[in-house]
Structure prediction request, 579 residues.
Amino acid sequence: MGGEAINRKEEAMAQPVQAQQADLTAIQDLFYRAAEMLEEGRFLEWVDLFAEDGVYTAITAANLKDRGLAIFTDRGRAGLRERAAYWMGMWQVNRGSTSHVIGNVRLVGRDGDQIQVRSKFIMTRMNRDGLVDLHTAGSYQDVLTERGGALLFQHRRVIIDNRTLPSNFTDPL
Amino acid sequence: MDTATRGSLFDLPSDRLIDRGIYYEPAVFAEEIEKIFKKTWQFVGHESELAAIGDYLTVDIYDQRLIVTRAKDGALRAFYNNCTHRGAALATETKGNCGNAFRCMYHGWSFDLEGRLTGLPRRSSYGPGVDLSMYNIPQVRVESFAKFIFVCLDSAAPDLETFLGGVKAPLLETSADVQVLGRLSFFYPGNWKLWSDNARDGYHAEYTHPLVGAVYRDVAESAGTIQHFAKGHSKLWWPIEGDPRNIGQLQEKILGVTGAQHNSPGTRPMPPVKIDFARGNVIAAIFPNVHLQWLMAGSEHVMEIARPIGPKQTRVDMIAFAPADESPEGIAFRLAKTMDSHSSAGKVTGDDCEAVTRITEAVHADGVQWTPLNRGLKEGDLGHKTDDTALRGFYAAWRDHMGVGS
Prediction:
């Protein structure tokens, strides 16, 4: 095989890798912005990261393997705004600052304009004594969609490693 | 705590007061385990979870670990989750199927579905004619009502139906034919009785839960009853007030909090689930620690069991139900939405967790010894839903078990 042919093949292979890398960067940016908005209390901005008919749901890993009893499910921006309202004062619970550390971000599929992504997260939370605890950990299973040049959450499923929840599990995951 | 102090703790002056020490004193907690939890019927699960031979559920009554299984004859059997050799737990999952036997992971001893030792590796080393029955696991009492399974560690306690008494009716009315959707548990830092109190306290709802105050106007003055049954059980009932689909008041609150437009004004879509508007909302409380919540005409159907872990630590196990003949669309809806208001992540129960946490943090105050139970004080076992009627009944039963007078 001549050098020109080799260069053409490498170019053909490199293009998808570069495109995938660009996608991954955009996806990570979406995830990090979402976490930052939740940690900073910018809940209505966070709602706008979802498609109009987007779904946000959480479930334990054990229940995911069973019949699928969710911890909660919010459908559409109306449902997401309702959850935002709880974070903003409809709950009377103690609030402690949180941090979400996200990693292992991986593209696992593409279907038309929708991208399936898996990632892992660890979440810490300041407790009532002012100390920081490991609050929960688990996975995000996301379906993202591109609308108007921006990536949005079409479906975000939070899978919690816990089998038993801590006493206050109302913070944004 | 010295004996004199302990004596005064139990010396409740009337049925209208609780000495707050019962919410945190280790000696009281230890006595409750012996005199209440080891003497009363304790909830395990639903018979549909034990449909096949070898299906099992595990349950801990404080430090007493039990297995309940469906034996080969189709009957339920309960025995200690404890190998009679070195004492290791035989089952570590909440539920499962063991096949024909429970095999201990330590030395391989095997027990059949009635707790009998049937497999003894290297049996000859135990000498000729070893009697395996010496090592059978003692059985404990297991009975069911409305397919709800209970166990009792006390061989002298009355049978389950006698124990349940008046609370049998609301159990049958709401739960005669159900299926289990799943389980979820959470911890809270507080005494187990705080959860029992909360389930019998209709007074708190309007103030603790902004959601309730937003959806229902004048909760404290509107219709509803609390009925106390003998032995500490009760039924809290209130009707569906107005059209349950109308969440206009909730939307107003949400708009006020978020400044955002809710895009489905006036109504929510009717959930595609079997419901019974006429029955309203029911919370059936079984002494000491079980609360069946059949809410919003049955669209939320959850059993809560408050398991005592320590004087100031409780685990709440929840089981979500659906009617046995619910449609596939209804099942999908319930799986997604049943727990929205429940658990420590729930839009309602989240606030209850905060309330019991705050009580635990502050209740031990030297200058404030008593908690009153005198709201709606009158003769009889039926009160307005916000009265302390069932709380007085609960603590009457508590005193009976603990052997203290009023």
